[in-house]
Write a structure and sequence with these properties.
The protein has one domain. Helix content is 0%, strand content 51%. It contains no helices and 5 strands.
Length: 73
């Protein structure tokens, strides 16, 4: 078992006990966000730090609601 800590920049995203250590370039999903592994470093014999690059979430443009059509109370 390996203790794997997933980081985005310096922010800790997730810590897990895993049977195998993920490799560089592997795609994964953490907290509902897609990302890829940029680097894996061995801290101790069974502790690993994994740097993750997450995709940016782009919010689509919302249609503007015409305020004149709403009823006034």
């Amino acid at each position: 078992m390996f203790a794997v800590h997933f980081y985005e920049n310096k922010n800790l995203l997730l810590s897990q006990l895993l049977q195998r250590v993920p490799s560089e370039g592997e795609e994964l999903k953490i907290k509902g966000r897609k990302g890829t592994i940029s680097s894996v470093t061995n801290v101790e014999d069974n502790k690993f730090h994994v740097q993750v690059v997450l995709e940016k979430v782009s919010k689509g443009k919302t249609a503007l609601v015409d305020q004149s059509k709403k009823r006034k109370r």
